[in-house]
Amino acid sequence: MMRKLIWMLLIGSLVAALSACGSEPAGNPVQADDPVPADGAVLVEIVSLDHAPIRPAVQDVLAVAAEFGDKVTAQTYTFGTPEGDAFATAHDLTEHTPLAIFVNGEMEFEVDGRSVTFYSFPQGEGTGIVAEGVWTMADFRAVLAQETE
After folding, report:
1. Alpha-helical segments (H) within the chain
2. Cβ neighbours of residue 149 under 8 Å, at least 6 residues apart?
3. pLDDT digits over 11-36, tens only?
4. Rounded CA separation 131/23 (Å)
5. Of 75, 83, 111, 119, whose CB is crowded by the most CB atoms within 10 A?
6. Which domains does the chain have, with CATH numbers?
7. CB distance 10 to 18 below 8 Å
8. Can you count the helices (H) and strands (E) in the chain?
């Protein structure tokens, strides 16, 4: 009886975890079909998998972009959608990519004398399956600050 209960709990946990990786929208406030940014605004384009572990990182990126008001426009794309796949193809993203961020079409920047690529999870936020990237939200904020000057 106890063994059966344990198996039921394990299966239930597995089902819940898998359903979190479904295709429900991440709830991002700006979607790919929104208008192009106003003249002079910095364009931040985020393409990501719509999986539970990635959504908080996307929300954090959007929150940092929002700190810059109308100087920054953010657009999101989701892998596995026609728009997201077209964006990925146009930017040569061919590997399994949890998250990639482009600022005015670029993903690599110089921050405090080092090269930073906004690819994969921010430092400290990787998972056991996907490694973290080599960037931080402070790096992202610094790039937006220099791009909006």
Report:
1. 2-19, 55-66, 82-90, 137-147
2. none
3. 444 333 333 343 333 333 344 444 45
4. 22
5. 75
6. 23-147 (3.40.30)
7. no
8. 4, 5
